[in-house]
Write a structure and sequence with these properties.
2 copies of one chain form a homodimer.
Chain A: E1 7-12, E2 19-25, E3 28-32, E4 34-37, H1 49-55, E5 60-63, H2 64-69, H3 73-78, H4 82-86, E6 92-95, H5 98-104, E7 106-110, E8 115-118, E9 125-128, H6 130-140, E10 144-146, H7 158-181, H8 183-189, E11 192-197, H9 203-216, E12 221-223, H10 232-245, E13 252-254, H11 260-268, E14 273-276, H12 278-284, E15 287-290, E16 293-296, H13 316-320, H14 323-331, H15 335-361, H16 365-376
C-alpha cells in the first residue's frame, strides 16, 4: 500500500490547468478533482452514511469547531475516532474551525496565541490554539487535518490583512511543530496536515503566503478566505494568483466553494478539491440542481408535474419520485422532502465531478465545459 | 390470482383467540397479524419508501383528512393514484379522517349529513360526507378504504353515544351504497371498503353496532373509538365484547393501537391489524423500543455508550451506529437522528409482529408472550 499523502497527477488537460489526480489516504485513495459534502456535526445534514456511499461520495469534510463543542474530541477518541463514531469508513477531512470562529461566535478575541470565544452550546469560554487544534484532530483521527488560520473578512484593510497573515503563517509553523511531535502516533494512522493560504484580496500577500507556506512543505495546500462576499472577478483573480504560485505536485483545496460554474472555472484554474455547504443547504430550501439549471420545487407549477426532478438523473429521488410528490412534501413540511432533495443535490455534485474528471481524461475540456454550462443555463421547457 | 378482499385464517392459537391469516389485496397479499406504520401525509415521517421495504413493512395507513386538504385527491388521481404518487408499491389503507376531524379541527360541525370544518391549510370550509369520503378514496385508490365515522370522545354520555352511533351506522350504510355504485371501477382495481364499529364504552352499544354492521356485510371490520384516554382495563373489556361478536372469517382492525403490551394482548383477543403513530412519534422524541424495553436516548448516560441501541436488533441503525452517535445527533438537532430512530422503531414493530405470527404458527403463544414481555420489562444493565 502506498504511503498516505502521496499525490499523483495522472493527466493534465491540454488547455487550461485542470488536472486529474489521486491522493492516497488512510481510508482509501481518492480521485481528484473531487467534491466533498460537509458534515459539520459528523453528519451530512439529512443523509445517512449509506446515502452518501450510494451517491458515490469519496470524502467528507467535518469541522472541529462543532465537534470540539459537542460531543468533544475525548468522547470521539474513546469511541474509536471520527470514522468509527459516525460509521463512515471512507476518508474524512476536518476543518480547523477558523472560519466558524470568526463567522459564528460571540465574544471572540484573537491574539497571537490563538482565539477565545464563547461556546454557543453551553456558554463556556473556549480557547483554540494552533497546538490544541492539532491535538484535537489527532484525537478525532481524520485522514486530513487542517491548521488553525484566521479567515479575514471582506473587505479588509491592508494593514489588518498583513498582520492577520503574519499570525496565520506563525500558526501554520506552530501547527506543524505540534503535528510532528505526534509523528509516531500520526504516521501510524497516516494522518496528514494541510496548510491554509490566506492573504485577503491582495495578490502580493497571497504570493507571500504561498512562499512562506512552501518552506514548511505541507503535503497539500488549502486556499482560504475566498467566497466570503467578494465579486466573482476578484475571486478568480486572487485564486489564479495563488494557484499559479503553488507547486504542481501537491493537491490544492479551495475551501467553501462553490457553484456549478465556479467548480468548472476553478478546476480549470488548477484546483483539485472542493467543499461547500450549498448543495445540502439549497436542497433544504427547495433549490434543486438539474442538468438544465436550478429548479425551485416550491414553485406552484410543480404541484402536479409528474416528471422526475431531472430526467437525466439516476439518483434514488429521480428514479422513484415526481416533482409533484416533492412539492407535496415541501408544502407539508415533511422531513423526507429535505432528504430526497439533499440526496439529489449531492448526487448531482458527485456526478458533476465525475464528468469533470472524464473531460480531463478524454482531453475534451473546452467542449465538455461548454456543453455542460450551456445546457445548465437553459432551464426546462 | 385470488380475489381482492379474500381473508383466510390459516391457523389459530390453541389458547386465546390469536389467529394467523392472509388478506388478498390489489397490491399484494399481507400476512396477519400485522402492524401498519402511519403515513398521514403520504410519507411515514422521516422515512423513505426504501427504508420501509427494508424494514419489511407490508402495508401503510394514510389519511384522507390530510390528503384531501393537501395536495387534494384530484392531483393524486391525475398522477396515477396514491401508490404511484408516493412511490409505494405495496398495499395502502386510507383512514376516512373521522378521528382527525374531531381531534384536530377548528369550527367543526356535525350533522346527520356529514361534517364541516375549517381547513387548517388554507382556512376554507371543508365538508366531508359518507359519499364524498368514498369518492375521495376511489380517486386515491388505496387497497382498503374506510367509511366515514364519528369517533366519540372519552368520557361520553350515554345519550350522545347512542345518537352518535346511529349517525355512524347510517353513514356506513350510505358509504356502502356509494361504494357499490362505483363497483365497475372499484372492482377493476380491487379496492375494498371496511366498516368501523363505534359505540363508545357501552358494551350493549358495541354489540348493537356489530349486529347492524354485519347486516351490511363488509369484507372487514375496524374497531374505532378506543385508545382515546380510557383506562387499559376498560379498553380491554370493550375490545373483548366487540371482537367476540365479530365473525371469524373477516379481518379485524383495531385503529390507533398501540403499545407493545397492548399488541400482544389484543392479538390474543383476536385482532388482526393494527396501526399507530406512536413508534414514529416516540422515535422523533428519542424514545426507542428495544428488546429490554424503552430507551430514552437523550439520557446523559448514552453520551459515550458505544453499544448499539439494541444488541438483539439487526436494523440499519443498530448494525451501523452507537447509542453515543444517536445521542450526539439528538443533542445537535440533526435530522439523521430522527430518521435512524424511526427506522429502528418501525423495524422493532415489524419484527414484533413477525414473532407474534411465529408464536401462533408454532403454537407457543403463552410461552412466547411471557418471554417477550418478561425481557421487555427488564431494562438494560
Amino acid at each position: 500500500m502506498e504511503k498516505s499523502g502521496i499525490y499523483k497527477v495522472t493527466k493534465k488537460a491540454s488547455q487550461g490547468h485542470a488536472r486529474l489526480g489521486s491522493l492516497v489516504l488512510p481510508h482509501g485513495t481518492v480521485e481528484t478533482p473531487l467534491f466533498m459534502p460537509v458534515a459539520p456535526q459528523a453528519t451530512v445534514k439529512t443523509l445517512s452514511q449509506a446515502d452518501l456511499l450510494e451517491s458515490g461520495v469519496q470524502m467528507i469534510v467535518s469541522n472541529i469547531y462543532y465537534l470540539h463543542l459537542r460531543p468533544g474530541e475525548d468522547i470521539i477518541q474513546r469511541l474509536g475516532g471520527l470514522n468509527k463514531f459516525m460509521g463512515w469508513h471512507r476518508p474524512i477531512l476536518t476543518d480547523s474551525g477558523g472560519y466558524q470562529v470568526f463567522s459564528l461566535s460571540d465574544m471572540r478575541k484573537i491574539s497571537s496565541d490563538g482565539v477565545t470565544f464563547r461556546s454557543p452550546v453551553d456558554g463556556t469560554t473556549v480557547v483554540l490554539t494552533p497546538e490544541n487544534v492539532v491535538e484535537i484532530q489527532r484525537k478525532l483521527e481524520p485522514d486530513i487535518a487542517m491548521c488553525l488560520d484566521e479567515c479575514t473578512p471582506y473587505p479588509c484593510e491592508r494593514a489588518y490583512a498583513e498582520s492577520s497573515l503574519r499570525t496565520t503563517l506563525d500558526w501554520a509553523n506552530r501547527s506543524l511543530i505540534e503535528f510532528n511531535k505526534g509523528t509516531s502516533i500520526s504516521h501510524a494512522e497516516g494522518q496528514i496536515l494541510f496548510g491554509i493560504i490566506q492573504g485577503s484580496m491582495f495578490p502580493d500577500l497571497r504570493r507571500l503566503a504561498v512562499d512562506e507556506m512552501l518552506k514548511l512543505n505541507f503535503p497539500g495546500y488549502a486556499i482560504g478566505g475566498l467566497s466570503i462576499g467578494e465579486p466573482f472577478s476578484l475571486r478568480t483573480e486572487i485564486l489564479n494568483v495563488t494557484v499559479s504560485s503553488l507547486p504542481q505536485e501537491k493537491p490544492r483545496y479551495l475551501m467553501g466553494v462553490g457553484t456549478v460554474k465556479e467548480i468548472w472555472e476553478f478546476v480549470e484554474a488548477g484546483i483539485d478539491m472542493f467543499d461547500c455547504a450549498m448543495p445540502t443547504r439549497n436542497a433544504r430550501n427547495g433549490q434543486l440542481f438539474t442538468s438544465h439549471g436550478k429548479l425551485v420545487i416550491k414553485n406552484s407549477r410543480y404541484r402536479d408535474d409528474n416528471r422526475p426532478l431531472d430526467p437525466d438523473c439516476d439518483c434514488y429521488t429521480c428514479k422513484n419520485f415526481s416533482r409533484a410528490y416533492l412539492s407535496h412534501l415541501f408544502r407539508s413540511n415533511e422531513i423526507l422532502g429535505l432528504r430526497l432533495s439533499s440526496l439529489h443535490n449531492i448526487h448531482f455534485m458527485i456526478k458533476l465531478m465525475s464528468k469533470i474528471r472524464r473531460a480531463i481524461l478524454t482531453d475534451t475540456w473546452e467542449k465538455s465545459k461548454m456543453e455542460f454550462l450551456g445546457k445548465y443555463s437553459t432551464g426546462f421547457s
